[in-house]
Pectin acetylesterase (Rubroshorea leprosula), 399 residues
Amino acid sequence: MVNARFSQGLNLLVFGLLLLKTDGLFVEITYVENAVATGAVCLDGSPPAYHWDRGFGSGINSWLVHLEGGGWCNNVTSCLNRKDTRLGSSDKMAKLIPFSGILNNRRQYNPDFYNWNRVKVRYCDGSSYTGDVAAVNPATNLHFRGARVWLAVMEELLAKGMRNAENAVLSGCSAGGLASILHCDSFQALLPLGTKVKCISDAGYFINAKDVSGVNHIQSYFSQIVTTHGSAKNLLPSCTSTLSPALCFFPQYMAPQIQTPLFIINAAYDSWQIKNILAPADADPNGTWESCKSNIKNCLPTQLKAMQAFRLQFLISLLRSGKSSSRGMFIDSCYAHCQTEMQEFWYMTDSPELNKTRIAKAVGDWFFDRIPFQKIDCPYPCNPTCRNQIYDSEHTPQL
Ligand SMILES: *[C@@H]1O[C@H](CO)[C@@H](O)[C@H](O)[C@H]1NC(C)=O
Ligand SMILES: *[C@@H]1O[C@H](CO)[C@@H](O)[C@H](O)[C@H]1NC(C)=O
Ligand SMILES: *[C@@H]1O[C@H](CO)[C@@H](O)[C@H](O)[C@H]1NC(C)=O
């Protein structure tokens, strides 16, 4: 009892110090309890969840819905591993999370969306919100219900006031950035005709490319996701009518069909894609890519050459999805993954720039039709404003 009290006090103290240190906003979780009745649940059967910070002032009727990322699970084994983590169960999620970058509530850090209703939807289905298998195997108790989760959360937000939105944005990073493309038109369809609706995909433009050993690793991986989660019926019919469901999980094949304005933010050398599409462990049994993948500065000339070829493939795949003026594009030549949620990428004095423009400014100008923005950076290492990711498995980063 005394111990529990003491530890609670300690937690509060640590949390207080954290608040002081970051001077940031922490937002409480909301569970969508009534979603359980319709089977709209996380992998383990727990209710889906989101964090909502209310809009204020001129933003009171504007909504930004940001979908959390966190990879996928592609088979029963990997889904079982995920089930008891925050990415598979709302029981395991932190109840308070920081809102920064595109979710920041201060104008100086988030000039165009700071006073909107800002929502972060927690990711716990492992399928970018596309799965829907009715049956639950009692031996695993795995629920493949991402598409139901999507609908249940959207219905709850509509009821909380989003149905009166003047402006609405669907955004997301990584698996959430892929989901924001996949669900972009269905998001718009949920809102009244008069609402200005646009979507933002951050680090969600995963390309269908061969790995360094010549194997199409990502295509079989995506194919397993779609099969395991029963996603086919929730992908874009305009794509699945001509291509296999696995291909319709890739933006290059389905983004051309999206009608709603879409802004794509992606590093041409996206670090997740370099690590998992170009040089996955299976394709590099001797680990010759490990050092390069952990820090782009360590890449050998032959590896940089492969990465430059990957960038060209990325650009070709990207341009397949059209250059209509409603499309926004911020394709930097950084070694990074997700540039909207972290303040230092989104909008600080030293954040990455293209044409002297930071991401927050490019996206805000595009959303409000002030200036269209479609910029592709020169090849690495030409952009001195990049914040290249360094992955260090030996040492945890300092607080
Ligand atoms: C499941 O997927 C993981 C990750 O891709 C892989 O390592 C594993 O071999 C797969 N397991 C089965 C049973 O297919
Ligand atoms: C890995 O190293 C072994 C021994 O040096 C070599 O024979 C083999 O070709 C290497 N494999 C690859 C994929 O580089
Ligand atoms: C770069 O941004 C400026 C505004 O800062 C704009 O006038 C100019 O047209 C842009 N250049 C290109 C190539 O888009």
